[in-house]
């Protein structure tokens, strides 16, 4: 009975808190929007593949292979190229059939195929959808070859052969080893999440250190001292950043160690050397990437620190600050997920958006470097700095308003009454 | 620029047609005007919701008025809040202190916002002496009683010897002994250091004991102002509580 009373009181404290309701609405709205973005990205990736052609390069013309491809052409849109490079701009995937391909199959040997998967962004989902598309095509091709062989030779071909693929990604018309591509994309995906996580922690710190002064009842004394509000705000932002950096240092070291481990892995691969080397992408500088990650972290921490101060300024107490910071943290994490699922090629508009979100800056840098167009990254940096400065200005502005003392009041009734304590 | 009345008395505080309407339409104060002269202790009295805290917060530069102005020794708190803050200090109702700090660290921190070097050390020593807390000052503030926190906060504002000291319910929630200590300190700094004091209180006895003049606030309006003796004479009352009750009854319905 006593416990149920205690529990009821705690639950009521949350459920009756308008900030809790607001946070639920924010989370629901934001992640519904995120869901739409993600599903649009997934749908786009799948539809692109469904509509797209698959390119084939045949190094050794063979009747059985040609016949099998004719059968598949009823289901797939197949284009024949003389070299993989010819199809880079047209087909989402290109498969190279080497000399002796059919002979190896009919003798139940192992066949190695080179495949090229075109991608327009550093997006694992899109890449994997296209790899799956190739695998499905190869499965269908195997069946078609068995069928064609049986028709021509009037015998049933025992299925004992094995087809292995050596995939390369094609980005901006240049090839990149699949393992390196996976590493780059993994890093480009993970780095924004790290920044988003740190920003969430930092926003929580800065809102708490602002709101706790109200609980401690020392806030109004501080505001009446002859110091500018700007200095108070900046001190709070810098203090929260320091705390967050200390907190996140271990995480960052772990990330670097993880990145280093992946680089080692790349050196051990590939299992097969590419048969032909087309214009390959240079490896992204690990040092530069880490520097960009650190830069985005700093910008992100200032950004989230300012947002935390704004939240701390407008609430009455620490509990409400905590409730409102939770959706903020989830939104930062959500910002990190957008480039992973959007699957769109980066444009000037998207660069501005990524700069506003801050978390995808590392992704933007890696994309810009790989595509050889650093202007996207420059736009993103300018956009993030502008957003960051705007948020600092906004936090100072809020700190100079009545709301910092009175707190945010959500009121639906306008009854003019005389009142004293606010 | 110092403001002076015709009789040569310096106006420490001049509140001019002050109105504060909060977002949502609730009225804090309405067309409020009064003046506090240098070296005076002026008390604002009135029931809950009469506009006392709103008035003090505007004077302390925490809130911005909807209209009107406040001049502290001629400096507008609206147009030049930083300059105004150099002339004032403010002790809010139920003022606390940072729980993670010791009493001594809190005193040092707050005073470091106004003083440096030797002046800071002198102010800190003076505040330590005022509190009378000795070794307790080294303990974390979270272990302090309400009275201890109040005296620490009061000491940090008194030793700055501001031109105008604003105190919101300075003895609210304190026991008799602490209340007497606080009142004596206020009077001492007013008398010995020429600190002009504006305070609000529900405690009429306290106001009678401490203040030279009072302003009576009711529903955001100043319904009477004057020395305690004058107000008693005008209303035929024997004490300030009676003055307030009679004034309140005389206010027309719908005021």
UniProtKB/TrEMBL annotation, chain A:
Segments passing through the bilayer: 20-38, 179-201, 237-261, 290-315, 321-342, 349-368, 374-399
Domain of life: Archaea
Annotated organism of origin: Staphylothermus marinus
Keywords: Membrane, Transmembrane, Transmembrane helix
Broad class of the protein's primary localization: membrane
Descriptive protein name: ABC-2 type transporter transmembrane domain-containing protein
Bilayer topology term: Multi-pass membrane protein
GO molecular function: ABC-type transporter activity
Subcellular location: Membrane
Record flagged with keyword Protein biosynthesis: no
From TrEMBL, chain B:
Domain ABC transporter: 13-244
One Pfam short name: ABC_tran
SMART domains: AAA
InterPro entries: AAA+_ATPase, ABC_transporter-like_ATP-bd, P-loop_NTPase
Transmembrane intervals: none
CDD domains assigned to the protein according to its UniProt record, in alphabetical order: ABC_DR_subfamily_A (cd03230)
UniProt keyword annotations, A-Z: ATP-binding, Nucleotide-binding
Gene Ontology terms for molecular function: ATP binding; ATP hydrolysis activity
Protein name: ABC transporter ATP-binding protein
Organism of origin: Staphylothermus marinus
């Amino acid at each position: 009975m006593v416990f149920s009373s205690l529990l009821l009181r705690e639950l009521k404290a949350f459920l009756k808190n308008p900030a809790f309701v607001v946070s639920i609405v924010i989370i629901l709205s934001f992640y519904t929007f995120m869901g739409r973005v993600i599903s649009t990205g997934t749908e786009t990736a799948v539809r692109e593949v469904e509509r797209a052609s698959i390119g084939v390069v045949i190094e050794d013309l063979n009747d059985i292979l040609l016949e099998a491809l004719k059968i598949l052409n009823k289901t797939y849109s197949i284009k024949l190229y003389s070299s993989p490079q010819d199809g880079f701009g047209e087909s989402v995937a290109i498969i190279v059939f080497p000399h002796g391909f059919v002979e190896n199959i009919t003798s139940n040997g192992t066949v190695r195929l080179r495949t090229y998967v075109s991608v327009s962004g550093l997006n694992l989902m899109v890449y994997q959808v296209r790899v799956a598309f190739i695998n499905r095509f190869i499965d269908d091709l195997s069946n078609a070859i068995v069928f064609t062989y049986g028709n021509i030779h009037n015998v049933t071909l025992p299925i004992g052969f094995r087809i292995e693929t050596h995939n390369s990604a094609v980005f901006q018309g240049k090839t990149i080893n699949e393992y390196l591509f996976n590493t780059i994309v993994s890093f480009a995906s993970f780095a924004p999440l790290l920044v988003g996580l740190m920003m969430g922690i930092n926003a929580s710190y800065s809102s708490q250190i602002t709101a706790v002064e109200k609980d401690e009842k020392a806030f109004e004394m501080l505001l009446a001292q002859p110091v500018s509000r700007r200095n108070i705000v900046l001190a709070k932002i810098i203090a929260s950043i320091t705390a967050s950096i200390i907190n996140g240092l271990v995480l960052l070291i772990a990330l670097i160690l993880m990145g280093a481990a992946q680089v080692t892995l790349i050196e051990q691969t590939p299992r097969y050397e590419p048969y032909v080397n087309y214009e390959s992408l240079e490896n992204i500088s690990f040092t530069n990437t880490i520097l960009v990650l650190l830069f985005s972290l700093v910008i992100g921490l200032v950004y989230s620190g300012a947002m935390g101060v704004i939240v701390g300024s407008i609430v009455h107490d620490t509990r409400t600050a905590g409730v409102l910071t939770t959706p903020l943290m989830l939104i930062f994490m959500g910002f990190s997920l957008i480039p992973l699922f959007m699957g769109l090629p980066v444009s000037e508009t998207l660069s501005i958006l990524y700069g506003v979100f801050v978390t995808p800056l590392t992704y933007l840098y890696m994309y810009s470097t790989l595509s050889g167009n650093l202007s996207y990254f420059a736009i993103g940096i300018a956009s993030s700095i502008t957003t960051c400065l705007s948020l600092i200005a906004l936090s100072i502005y809020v700190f100079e308003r009545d709301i910092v003392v009175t707190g945010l009041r959500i009121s639906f009734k306008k009854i003019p009454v005389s009142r004293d304590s606010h | 620029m110092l403001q002076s009345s015709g009789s040569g008395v310096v106006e420490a505080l001049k509140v001019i047609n002050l109105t504060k309407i909060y977002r949502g339409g609730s009225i804090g104060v309405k067309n409020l005007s009064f003046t506090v002269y240098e070296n005076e202790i002026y008390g604002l009295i009135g029931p809950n919701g009469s506009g006392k805290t709103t008035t003090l917060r505007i004077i302390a530069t925490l809130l911005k008025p909807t209209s009107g102005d406040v001049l502290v020794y001629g400096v507008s708190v609206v147009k030049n809040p930083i300059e105004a803050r150099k002339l004032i200090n403010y002790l809010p109702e139920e003022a606390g202190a940072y729980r993670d700090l010791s009493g001594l660290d809190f005193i040092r921190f707050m005073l470091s916002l106004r003083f440096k070097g030797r002046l800071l050390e002198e102010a800190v020593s003076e505040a330590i002496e005022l509190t009378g807390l000795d070794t307790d000052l080294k303990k974390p503030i979270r272990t302090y009683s309400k009275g201890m926190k109040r005296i620490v906060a009061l000491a940090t504002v008194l030793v700055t010897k501001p031109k105008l000291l604003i105190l919101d319910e300075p003895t609210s929630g304190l026991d008799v002994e602490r209340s007497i200590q606080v009142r004596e300190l206020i009077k001492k700094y007013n008398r010995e250091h020429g600190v002009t004091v504006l305070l609000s209180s529900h405690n009429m006895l306290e106001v009678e004991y401490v203040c030279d003049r009072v302003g009576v606030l009711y529903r955001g309006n100043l319904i009477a102002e004057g020395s305690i003796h004058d107000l008693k004479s005008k209303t035929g009352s024997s004490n300030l509580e009676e003055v307030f009750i009679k004034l309140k009854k005389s206010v027309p319905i719908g005021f």
